[in-house]
Amino acid sequence: MMFQAMREFERMREWMDGLTEGLARSASEGVGYDLNNLYENDQAYMLQFLAPGAKIEDVSVNFENGVLSVGVKRTGDRKDREKWTVLRGERSGYEFTRSWKLGTAVDADKIEAKLADGILLVSVPKLPAKQPKRIEIKVA
What we know:
The protein is of the alpha+beta class. The chain has one helix spanning 2-29, and strands at residues 36-40, 44-50, 59-64, 67-74, 94-101, 112-116, 119-125. The longest helix has 28 residues, at 2-29. The radius of gyration is 24 Å and the shape is flat. 8% of the residues are buried.
């Protein structure tokens, strides 16, 4: 009985260590602005990214060989930096690049990207599904 209880405590400790390790890693790496949402319906894929403070020149969206790549590179606050002494700096620059293999069944010419209110939205329309071709059978 005592051995079983000790084994259960050890299992719980390992589980808690796993949780706290993930939290510590996230804190040491800074805010993960590369967090994103990926949605899909019959007509398109929609990707949504956090991109606080990013300007259009900070963002790149590319589609090549069925792979969509999105990158954001934002340097820290530049405005009036030489006029001020930083007392506390919790916001800084960030950079990320993410890629997804979407295949070739997307309409690359109609991919759209919009940046508004710190959110980057990328819409990737799908091509209509090909229907099987019915072959007429002739009597010989």
